[in-house]
């Protein structure tokens, strides 16, 4: 069903919000590549330590995305209602929440860094290296969370350019500082951790400065923070469902064969990278839908849902066609190992075929996140994981289906999510108007 022309957002506006958001999403993975390249020249033990510690630290941003996505949803509604000061106030409270949660995580992280590193890497030099990096990098956690909150409220008021600048400044400084501290200062792996903290402090400082410049009250308001935590609870549970799926898939691939786990890692990282590309469209949808509902324009919000669904489908088809054409070339850039290359086709064609599905699913995720419909997203994601992904993945281990079984499970998960999202969006129950969703 086509959207009436009057209800369509110009493609330029959608991309104007999506492209800077993509830059923010891509900045951290690109910095980690630089960090990995620098540390990699120190030897296998520091590189292994960085790998283990970075996985632990990454769980913070993975599990606490409500500080960005939840804040965007609430701020966008208020911005759409013409209440910019109240939208910024959501950012103030999210920032306070980020500081409090971040300080708690620093304390807990320092206490459990050793046991967690040894659980992941076993006893030995790699675990010791991971602990030394992690104990330093943990001091940047409050700043990571402040940056997430800053991204949230600025996206909510339709400003995606400043977050891009702030994140790039911090990461560029850290990328330049990392080799200086690692090699010239002779700090080794610990120099990498210090550079990481510097990036987080600089970026967070810029976001705080932007918040102060808005001249809104900066005192904490517990009632607002509790409301944000209620939304955050649903997003955290949703995120845990994703983690359960992907950790299970990697574990089963590791028990299949060395070639299977290597192939799974390559295809999965490509999947994650393309998810960032498609997620930038979801962020744009989130901002625009939240604005429309805040302005009590539910017809416009429904039109946006149909519009971004079409964009997601087109982008997904383009990506699928591109990676189908690269099937004979791209895997060889990642590895020359024959066993891995023989396994890659077992996952590759699932990965290619799922791109159009992913394009629609991520776009609709953005629509419902913008509407603040986090409770539905939580339930639908958990149900899709329990019914679709996890049974197939663990059956693959028991029955020896290998990567075909694992990626069939991912396909079932995505198709179930697609079905539930389409039903929800068509029902219209998500389009609750008003400055605050009740």
Characterization of the model:
The structure is a single chain. 84% of the residues lie in helices and 0% in strands. The protein has 438 residues and is mainly α. It has two domains: 1-220, no CATH class; 231-438, no CATH class.
Which helices and strands appear, and what pairs or packs with what?
Elements: H1 11-40, H2 44-63, H3 66-80, H4 84-121, H5 125-137, H6 141-156, H7 161-184, H8 189-213, H9 222-256, H10 258-294, H11 298-325, H12 330-334, H13 338-353, H14 355-370, H15 374-399, H16 402-427
Helix pairs in contact: 1-7, 1-10, 2-4, 2-5, 3-4, 3-6, 3-9, 3-10, 4-5, 4-6, 4-9, 5-8, 6-8, 7-8, 9-10, 9-15, 9-16, 10-11, 10-13, 10-14, 11-13, 11-14, 13-16, 14-16, 15-16
Keywords: Cell membrane, Membrane, Transmembrane, Transmembrane helix, Transport
Organism: Actinophytocola xinjiangensis
GO cellular component, one term: plasma membrane
Rg calc? 22 Å
In the predicted model, the low-confidence regions spanning at least 5 consecutive residues are: 1-6
Overall form:
globular
**Which range does the strand content fall in?**
under 5%
* Helix percent band: over 70%
| Series of H and E elements | HHHHHHHHHHHHHHHH
